[in-house]
Amino acid sequence: MSDILNVFVSSLNCGKLALNDPPTIQHIISKCDHSMDYDYFIFGFQEIISLGEMGNPQLIGSKLSKLSNLLIEQLTLKYTIDHNNPIGFELIATNHLGAIGLIIIAPKSSTGEDNTSIIKLNVRCGYFSSGLKGGSYVRLVTNSTKNKSFSTPIALNIIVAHLTANEGYYVKRTQDIEKIMDELSAKKLNGYEFYKYEPTIFFGDLNFRCTATVTDTKYSPDKIESVLNNEEELTLYLNGTNPFNFHELHIGFPPTYKYVLGSFDEYKSQKRIPSWCDRILINDSIYFNLIMEKSSYQSVSRNTNFLMKTDHQCVVSTLSFEFSDDTSQPSTSGTTISENEQNLLSPSNSLRHIKNSKIDDVNDAQDVYGDTLDYFIGYGCWLHEEHTYILYFIIFLIVSYVGYSFLF
């Protein structure tokens, strides 16, 4: 009998605001399939803090912790009401990079045992290795979830991303995807190409745009299909090179960006072409199937005060993966999977990055540099927002010092 893994995925660009609004959480999780026995609930966020807060990684960690508790509280309430059968939930993992956050929650195991191995990684795509853009990754490997045991260990790869913004940067966005995937595989997982063998969810504010000039922002099903098939960047990428075999479920909802702040469904089309920036991608592989009749993809209406304060629209997806009975996995060379890859697959081993001095030294240096840059970006924005006169005075001192050094 095949193993089944069911997940709920949500992506929301918070518009640089902290999400602590129970009605918004309730509205998002109301899109869960009532009949689905979920193994994981995955919540991805972009711009979950302001730029002025980005220089303090402890701050976003604290905010994600509070948000995790709120999500668990609302999930417990939802399942108590919907099923008249209280279910406990627990936090499996969080990860973050810059203003990008990832939270993974699961129903509590009936045995109380946690058989999940976890690895967390980040890849920076912002200018000068900043965390303004990039991807935050969590890899799960488990033998069981809640009351379900799997015949073999199952791995799930989750990447929430915020890619390069603005029209005209299609190539840079595709380069961001490839940098994130290549660095995770080649530099941080010792060359293990996880996306060839295991479910990989790549989602978030991917920022791909439509290329056509829009005069009518009313989107019928026929218009949605026509624009997506002929005038949309990510569809072009998925139907083209697409080296990681990503695809997505059918889109039947209007563009998710750019909305007028404070509006329910009004696009700011005079400045930005309405686009499907917020997306949830999954990979193709011969080792698992997506059960289409149990999977879904939809946007979440902007009918809470918080959701109307962001110019994006939340998207959610239910994904049901069925794993092949044949668990033998060939490597890219056509032989059996390597011992190192088997170690990564095994939940009995801790998922650790095996030290490669040259690669790790470069990664460590980039991370230190990126963290330092994030600190100065955050502190500079904080000064600009809260104490503009201090920022101008610091700039004046720097310019004066450089000028003095140059002249004398």
TrEMBL record:
Residues 3-327 form the Inositol polyphosphate-related phosphatase domain. Pfam families: Exo_endo_phos2 (PF22669). Keywords: Membrane, Transmembrane, Transmembrane helix. The chain crosses the membrane at residues 389-407. This is Inositol polyphosphate-related phosphatase domain-containing protein. It comes from the Eukaryota. One of its GO terms (molecular function) is phosphatidylinositol-4,5-bisphosphate 5-phosphatase activity. The keyword DNA damage does not apply. InterPro entries: Endo/exonu/phosph_ase_sf, IP5, IPPc. The keyword tRNA processing does not apply. GO terms for biological process: phosphatidylinositol dephosphorylation.
